[in-house]
Amino acid sequence: MNYNAHIHIMPHDTILDPQGQAVNDSLKKLGFQTIENVRVGKKISFSIHADSKEIAQNKAKEACEKLLVNKIVESYKIEILEN
Hints:
Layout: E1 2-11, H1 18-29, E2 42-49, H2 53-68, E3 74-82
Antiparallel strand pairs: 1-2, 1-3
């Protein structure tokens, strides 16, 4: 069966996020005074062929742990959907 994996990666709350701060400052300059605490992350999507959703979840987690996420400064969430 084919699954779609969506990996949502964000910097830890305790880590300085200069890109988020730049976006936050720009939004303020554009008049968005009610928006604050902007954090910028990334999303990685890919397909996985696996016999079950659990196996697809495990493969996605392994990819995150080995390559996609720097666990020192980032956290992540995996979303697996049937294709």
